[in-house]
Amino acid sequence: xxxxxxxxxxxxxxxxxxxxxxxxxxxxxxxxxxxxxxxxxxxxxxxxxxxxxxxxxxxxxxxxxxxxxxxxxxxxxxxxxxxxxxxxxxxxxxxxxxxxxxxxxxxxxxxxxxxxxxxxxxxxxxxxxxxxxxxxxxxxxxxxxxxxxxxxxxxxxxxxxxxxxxxxxxxxxxxxxxxxxxxxxxxxxxxxxxxxxxxxxxxxxxxxxxxxxxxxxxxxxxxxxxxxxxxxxxxxxxxxxxxxxxxxxxxxxxxxxxxxxxxxxxxxxxxxxxxxxxxxxxxxxxxxxxxxxxxxxxxxxxxxxxxxxxxxxxxxxxxxxxxx
Length: 324
Fold this sequence. Notes:
Structural class: alpha/beta
Number of domains: 2
Distance between the termini: 65 Å
Shape: globular
Helix content: 40-55%
Radius of gyration: 22 Å
Strand content: 15-25%
Order of helices and strands: HEHEHEHEEHEHEHEHEEHHEH
CATH topology of the largest domain: D-Maltodextrin-Binding Protein, domain 2
Number of helices: 11
């Protein structure tokens, strides 16, 4: 009888927990939600987050604000989310470089995967290779030839060590056998001034970030970095087509919550975010930025992050990438 009573009490406790969780999801959110972007204003992650936040505000009936906390390869802003209460009111929007930091910073205060609850992968983001309009190179092949004629005299800009722009440039260096100097900046936008002035000579960046400068003619678009041509830029060749077969990668964006956030809250965030991402309007807006909507499940995002963490960890070693 005592054993039966214990089972009844356990079942009652489970039922009470499930009821409380369901009730929490129904009433959540009861106050503003904040999405921290650990990168500078104006990049692909920032733009995507603001598209989501504006529409989530309408769906939740509560303000959804965006806060940019750039610095330390995204660690500063991401750490703030990892340490936040797991109640769904503080979220993070990260790029694929998020999973690199564990291999770059051994004393990282959070685990990029275990420290977070996955919500959805928003999109795959096409990076492009751009040079100042003053640089005498109009193709990938011409840029490689120029770099080989002046070993070590050309430099590439990045949004920081461990960032996607650095990884893509280092992949180019390795594949082409050229020597480029790395000039890291505190964010993508911060890197553009020197690139436009010709003080740095090449950069891989999200199309959304450099599109205004390409349109103005101050930057020249040489190639897309993905494995295939972009449907948005069908006339622009890939880096691989420029003489580097096998070169090709994309970045991605993801929405995360602190680990321990109740599943009903994650489910609500996922459901509303996916509905927004799959709308024709948002698909078109993101496509114009060089991003292809994915809108994955939390489980698919978790699997992606684990797979990408393993891949990037190998690249950190192979490419000898070190933090600033």
